[in-house]
């Protein structure tokens, strides 16, 4: 595989068992493709410093809600972290270094900052992939409280999540148990990259869209929709042999796909169907 050094480091990081993947490092390797001179240690040290400062402010009683209150005060009141409501699709919102520098991000990257600091003060939290939004919660059995890092660390319960979904989709949405399931580290990183994929696609930056898809496939090599999308991007970028390989692979694995007719027509155009 002919990877850039940032891609190689990302690949090495995600080869470990899921629980050993360092999310902050992996996220910074994602950013390093955009910023080749990015100094990882600078931003890892920034997270360490923030955690040390929070540690000094923690209450003597380490009840989860008290700890969340301390984290919220530090991150949002003292440091001024905020959700980027006005320019949500700015790609900088998806790069951990930019989020730390600008004190601004989207739900998943602000959640990452929150998780990393919480972990360093021995208050582990986990990601929750709510459709259309990303939350976190304390990694404590049977504790059903959720934190919205995008909205100043608002504490939510399952009923609040139900209301948030209904508001986002502007119609009643049933809160299925899987909506509140914990995401793995690989799923966390794939969701970050999926955000970048659609941002760059919207900007018609096909090379950067392809780079995001390629990294999603490093995480999940058998993700057939990503293989299809990589094939379509190859086609648009004029890499026809690679496009044919991916699109034929997609059809062989998902012969009854809804878009099979379109893909076959495209392969016929390329002289391969």
TrEMBL record:
It holds the Pfam family Transglut_core2. It comes from the Bacteria. Gene3D superfamilies: Tetratricopeptide repeat domain (1.25.40.10). InterPro entries: SirB1_N (IPR032698), TPR-like_helical_dom_sf (IPR011990). Residues 42-193 form the Protein SirB1 N-terminal domain. Belongs to the UPF0162 family. This is Protein SirB1 N-terminal domain-containing protein. It comes from Anabaenopsis circularis NIES-21.
């Amino acid at each position: 595989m002919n990877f850039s050094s940032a891609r190689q480091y990302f690949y090495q990081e995600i080869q470990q068992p899921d629980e050993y993947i360092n999310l902050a490092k992996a996220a910074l390797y994602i950013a390093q493709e955009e910023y080749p001179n990015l100094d990882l240690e600078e931003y890892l040290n920034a997270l360490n410093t923030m955690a040390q400062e929070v540690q000094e402010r923690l209450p003597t009683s380490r009840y989860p809600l008290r700890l969340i209150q301390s984290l919220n005060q530090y991150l949002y009141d003292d440091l001024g972290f905020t959700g980027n409501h006005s320019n949500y699709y700015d790609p900088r919102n998806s790069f951990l270094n930019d989020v730390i520098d600008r004190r601004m991000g989207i739900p998943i990257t602000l959640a990452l900052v929150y998780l990393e600091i919480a972990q360093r003060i021995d208050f582990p939290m986990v990601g929750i992939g709510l459709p259309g939004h990303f939350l976190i919660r304390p990694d404590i059995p049977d504790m059903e409280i959720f934190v919205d890092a995008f909205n100043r660390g608002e504490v939510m319960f399952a009923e609040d999540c139900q209301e948030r979904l209904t508001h986002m989709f502007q119609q009643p949405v049933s809160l299925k148990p899987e909506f509140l399931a914990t995401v793995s580290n690989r799923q966390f990183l794939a969701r970050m990259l999926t955000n970048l994929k659609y941002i760059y696609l919207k900007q018609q930056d096909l090379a950067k869209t392809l780079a995001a898809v390629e990294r999603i496939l490093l995480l999940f090599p058998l993700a057939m929709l990503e293989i299809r999308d990589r094939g379509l991007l190859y086609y648009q970028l004029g890499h026809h042999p690679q496009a044919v390989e991916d699109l034929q692979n997609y059809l062989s694995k998902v012969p009854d796909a809804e878009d099979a007719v379109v893909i076959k027509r495209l392969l016929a155009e390329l002289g391969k169907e």
